[in-house]
Amino acid sequence: MSYGMIATWRMACDGITKGTTDLANGGSAQTAIVAAIKMVEDYPFYKSVGYGGLPNEEGLVELDAAFMNGDNFDIGAVAGSRSVKNPIAVAEKLSHERFNSFLVGDGVAKYAIKEGFEIQNMLTERAKKTWENRLAEMRNSNLSPYDGHDTVGMVALDQNGSMACGTSSSGLFMKKEGRIGDSPLSGSGFYVDSEIGGATATGLGEDLMKGCLSYETVRLMGTGLQPQEAVNQAMQDFAKQLERRKGKCGAFSLVAMNNKGEWGVATNVEFSFAVATDQLAPTIYLAYPSEDGSYPKIEVASQEWLDAYQARITAPIQ
Ligand code: GLY
User: Fold this and answer.
1) PANTHER family from the xrefs (predicted)?
2) Catalytic-residue membership of 151
3) Counting C-beta atoms within 10 Å of the first and last residue's C-beta, which end of the chain has fewer, N or C?
């Protein structure tokens, strides 16, 4: 039986490497998603997820995360979480609750403490320095403060045919206190149905949530489209609508996998993503948007690109 994981951004690769090793040994999609996203949340140099995530305009880290079980549609989500070490683990726990399965703000910490989850200060010195630098840049120029919202989103398929997905994000850099993006919103940031497939998104949450693009991708796969056709159609159709009706469309990138382990990606910006299946060793790809709305150009990330990425994310912040 096939198994696999697909995820947004290069940062997901170590997680899906571990996750697919577990899947190869018979592990569940649900467990693989939580373990893989925890790895991203715990790495302090990823500045858009978990510990080390960039703060809001008040200097407070507020994190969003969600988990969905594709077998029974159970969903758990947290938003504006300030002190939970692993928001994805709390989201997964919440997915088992019949009521109160989406918590925000202080309610997340209260629930997490009661359930025995680890609490910690999520603001690193590095993230604080980046925030201070951005404040200074904004004072000295007309720079838009809103830049950077690289959500990690993952879809997994296990050997029993079960699927799951999850997201985790610090959201838009310099967001308003209490702002919530698409990542914890079912249908927008994520969706999965084990009888069809799953999809997850990264990009400007305010625009992604207008089109419910993760749900739309899964719906299209359910009509018989291949993941690549489905995700491209969902994204391109909606991006055109937004451009026609509002004159602009934010950055959108989506990844999708069906319940056979086939996958696809759509994007309107340069975008990295990671895939591993029973047929494919963990691989980091770069996707480039097409001019004409056809499929993106996809290439394996070169060693030079990977080295430059690692140097960039770990470079000292002045
Ligand atoms: N896509 C993440 C956010 O907008 O918060």
Assistant:
1) L-ASPARAGINASE (PTHR10188), N(4)-(BETA-N-ACETYLGLUCOSAMINYL)-L-ASPARAGINASE (PTHR10188:SF6)
2) yes
3) C
Q: Which residue has the tokens 């969903």?
A: 75
CA distances from 25 to 35, 163, 197, 280 (A): 15, 16, 21, 16
Ligand 1 — pocket residues by CB below 6 A? 149, 151, 169, 171-172, 181-183, 202-205
Distance 201 CA to ligand 1 centre (A): 9
Can you give the CATH number for the domain in which 70 is found? 3.60.20.30
Per-residue pLDDT of the chain (318 residues; tens, 9 = 90+): 899 999 999 999 999 999 999 999 999 999 999 999 999 999 999 999 999 999 999 999 999 999 999 999 999 999 999 999 999 999 999 999 999 999 999 999 999 999 999 999 999 999 999 999 988 888 887 666 566 668 999 999 999 999 999 999 999 999 999 999 999 999 999 999 999 999 999 999 999 999 999 999 999 999 999 999 999 999 999 999 999 999 999 999 999 999 999 999 999 999 999 999 999 999 999 999 998 889 999 999 999 999 999 999 999 988
Range of the structural domain that residue 74 is part of: 4-314
Ligand 1 atom with the smallest distance to the CA of 201 is 1
Q: Answer for the pair 105, 136: CB distance below 8 angstroms, yes or no.
A: no
